[in-house]
Amino acid sequence: MAVYTEVSDEEVRAFVAQYDLGDVMSCKGIAEGVENSNFLLVTDKGPYILTLYEKRVDPADLPFFLGLMDHLAARGLTCPQPVAGRDGVALRFLCGRPAVIVTFLKGMWPRRITAEHCAGLGGGLARLHLAGEGFPLTRRNALSVPGWRPLFEATRARADEVKPGLADALAAELDHLEAVWPADLPHGIIHADLFPDNVFFSDGKLSGLIDFYFACNDLLAYDVAICLNAWCFEADGAFNVTKARLLLGAYEAVRPLSVAERAALPVLARGSAIRFLLTRLYDWLNTPAGAMVKRKDPLEYLHKLRFHQQIRHTADYGLDRS
Ligand SMILES: Nc1ncnc2c1ncn2[C@@H]1O[C@H](COP(=O)(O)OP(=O)(O)O)[C@@H](O)[C@H]1O
Ligand SMILES: N[C@@H](CCOP(=O)(O)O)C(=O)O
Questions:
Q1: Cβ burial, residue 214 (10 Å; 0-12/13-18/19+)
Q2: Are the C-beta atoms of residues 34 and 55 closer than 8 Å to each other?
Q3: Which ligand 2 atom lies nearest to the CA of residue 32?
Q4: Residue 221: inside a domain, yes or no?
Q5: With a 6 A CB cut-off, is 197 part of the ligand 1 pocket?
Q6: Count of structural domains, the chain
Q7: In this structure, are 134 and 279 located in the same domain?
Q8: Ligand 1 touching residue 215 (CB < 6 A)
Q9: What pLDDT digit, counting tens, does each position of 135-190 carry?
Q10: Is this complex's ipTM strictly greater than 0.95?
């Protein structure tokens, strides 16, 4: 359960009193998520999400994240919207943390991913990329190529505790990716963490996207690669080409990939694999004992990395246009 900061009933009441949300009926920690402390806040006006921003969120980035959610919502994308208090301010402090209340989205994230979910996701991802156009703020992706080596250095000495040989494997992969990473593909706003737990469905249709706290400006096709990794592998580690085809097909129905973007998918998928491998490895080695959070398995992403290392050309995935 991702609640790093406990908030007392009195503190919640005093905080909510600054909004036109009526009385607090309940405020319960949410047993999901990794990065921030989230609470389901129910007031007279209905359900909301109260988020206290924790370790990896730089407070200087919050205007970007909050402004982006407003920008995307104004362009028809269903995503949480920051709620302003009576003074017009959405971003405040609670228990020493930056904190906001955002609107509650209906729907559930899919626990068992079907091919239909992947199609829904592909369309939603492309709509997000188009809706991001014109957003005036920018944020560099702190977890793209230049960010990987410091993470590696922070984990290198103990990586082999997780799997013998892991440190050397990561070093070799980083050398490769730093040498071949594409720079000149179309870029724009990307979500950068569009895993199943950040995509809500209702009646089988995509109903909303959440958790924009890794969003940044980067290669649009990198976001596609992140989704291929997060949505198109089965529990036994097999790559499901049907899911991948549907995801890409639905994406391209809204925003066709260029030839160069398609060709770059294997290297982008390797980059996406090492990015999540490294953050999971870091968390695996550094999560404080007793923290109410379920650590994610770094080796799941080593397996995905190994898979993409075998792919020379995008056609080798079996992802031909149909
Ligand atoms: N706007 C929202 N509407 C409904 N549920 C939400 C909303 N935001 C977060 N949640 C719930 O909280 C959980 C954790 O949120 P998330 O943003 O993924 O946390 P973290 O940033 O800590 O990873 C989600 O899986 C979802 O159940
Ligand atoms: N999606 C990341 C972890 C970040 O978790 P989230 O709850 O913020 O989506 C991973 O799987 O490693």
A1: buried
A2: no
A3: 7
A4: yes
A5: yes
A6: 2
A7: yes
A8: no
A9: 999 999 999 999 999 999 999 999 999 999 999 999 999 999 999 999 899 999 99
A10: no
